[in-house]
Amino acid sequence: MSTGSVRASAEERARPLPGDDLISSPIGSLTDAVTIQAAPRDVWPWLVQMGAGRAGWYSYDRLDNGGQSSATRVIPELQRLATGMVFPALPGRTDGFTLAAFQPESFLVLDWKAPDGARLVTWAFVLQPLSARSTRLIVRARAGPGYRFRGLPWSLTKAVAPVVHFIMQRKQLLGVASRAEKARAFRTPEGEAAFLGAYDAAMKRLWRVPYEDLEVSSRFGTTHVVASGPRDGPPLVLLHGYMATLTMWGPNVADFTRDYRVYAIDIMGQPGKSIPAEPIRDAADYATWLAETLNGLRLDCVSLAGMSYGGWLALNFAIAAPERVKQLVLLSPACLLPIARQFSLRGMLMMFFPTRLTVDSFMRWLGFRPNRADARCVFDVMRLGLKHFRIPRETLRVTPTEFSDDGLPVMRVPTLLVLGDREVIYDPAAALERGRRLIPQFQGTLVAGASHDMCFSQHRIVDARVLDFLSRQRENVPRRVVA
Known about the structure:
By secondary structure, the protein is an alpha/beta fold. The chain has two domains: 10-182, START domain (Alpha-D-Glucose-1,6-Bisphosphate, Chain A, domain 4, 2-Layer Sandwich), CATH 3.30.530.20; 189-476, Alpha/Beta hydrolase fold, catalytic domain (Rossmann fold, 3-Layer(aba) Sandwich), CATH 3.40.50.1820. The chain has 15 helices and 15 strands. Strands 7, 8, 9, 10, 11, 12, 13, 14 and 15 form a nine-stranded mixed beta sheet that branches. It starts with 9 loop residues before the first helix and ends in a 12-residue tail after the last helix. Residues 477-483 have low confidence and may be disordered.
């Protein structure tokens, strides 16, 4: 975390910065700086959206933002810059600071001009990378010959302005630092490096087809998506199990991508490469997040498959937005019957004490074999994610619930339910019967000898049944080039 000091070094005060050339002979120059434990790309959005009536100035809101609290999240609609745009100094004003120059993720220079066009003030925000995950934010304010603080004579201006500026500037710098650091998805840089190393190793081992990483922004954060398969293939979207990351689809992706453009998504708010902003607070937020993610991918109507927790999310979305789901595949979904108490108890133990022992114990109970190399690398990603990822508390409280008898019949999306006949989270035969009874366009099947592990241990059988179901209506899916 930042130390609270905003004192610039002698070298920083003497160093030329962007914007210095805009006032060649300043009558005053003030330089402050703060170290932020976040990469420049994670600090930059907070600078872009500054301004009264926008995201605020992150300083004393009663004084410079009309009493409205400055934003605590990155606001996607405020992330566009154009030279000459105004950053209002006070709410309701059309004048203010003007964007004089910028370079994305590097610097942003504001100025304030007199009616005759002479520059009275420049205000430069410069991002200096210190490491891959830390930044020095250097801020310099320079006053031109015509500047007077609140109309005071120069003798008072030079005494009062530096004090007022320092008070407001310090609050702003610490406000930016606090927001950028809290927005970090991981507790420590070392933990982030350990998790990402395991994640990338799992992808290298399991994802045996070419893929590209995509990032989709929304008000909930930046969603990480891995896309594979023919670009003109019908879109198939995959939502993974609880805390498992999209790497869990490694055994299935080769089969799915033969004919489909597959989009595997790291679920927002869970360990992965998706970076949260505004926390997801309920099932409706998850439906909105998925809709915004599909919008960002330019996908109107998709085949949607979800495993366990992802199955709950998929069914939740199909009920909320049935027009956007061509076909629905539910793989051991955590939403058709009440979940076994052991699932909650073992899951809580794993969440609070994420060790190899607790993760392996939980997954072994579900039917997985931790000694299998493919499963091992996914379990390691889970363990490191639970240990190091900063899961938003609001999102952690969003747990799957059993859908009511009234809710399921209104969902008229063709649906396939696949369960292992040894499923442990609930009675698979009873879940199959409930789905058959309540979901209008329903197909269901049991996989012999499998439990919650079927996408791993019996992935060939699962893949074949999923693809057979999807192919039945494939001729109705328009083919088009997508992201």
